[in-house]
Design a protein that fits this description.
- The protein has one domain: Rossmann fold, CATH 3.40.50.300.
- It is an alpha/beta fold.
- It contains six helices and ten strands.
Amino acid sequence: MNTESGAVLKAENLHKNYIQGDLEIPVLGGLNFELARAEQVAVVGRSGSGKSTLMHVLAGLDTPDKGSVLVDGVDLASADNDTRARVRSHSMGFVYQNHHLLPEFSALENVAMPLRIDGNDRPTAEDNAAHLLSEVGLKNRLGHLPHQLSGGERQRVAVARALAGDPKIILADEPTGNLDAETAAQVIELMHTMSAEHGCAFLVVTHDPSALPSFSRVVRLADGILT
């Protein structure tokens, strides 16, 4: 990675306000954060503290009012839309609370999709997708549609899809929010395993206190900064 500190992601002095009528509401207030290679970090904070805003800014899906977000030597805060999309495609993967799998496509096709978009031919994309699905324990579910999978299995497909582009960073926003405790623990354990095996960092927003001891670091978002 090309940040000076060796971090795979480095955010400096992030400020973000939202306007509601005549009010200016501060969300991020001079926030600083670094994520190291293969580090597994949980972000916690009360509802409305700005965790999703932070994830959107770090992903280049939203721009801060002030500050920088360095990924692969690119400042996403000042980059144009095409550059941000390129960085997301080649350096980042995403897992959401709602898996966002395409309902008409099989598990294999959902994981192969980003590889096809990136220019791989169908056999190569599907071979790589099958390997990833096997890694996450779904080698016997390749042809299943999302509605034929359990909630935990759908999130495993989502993790495999996030890994498809061999990213350096995976951002996960409440990835276990819709799962029961046992399944949630399995998905968190899976993400830790994939982080170690693929050498990618995971930054996970979670409300699940039982998951926190398994992370290498836990940071709390409050009053616009991380502690």
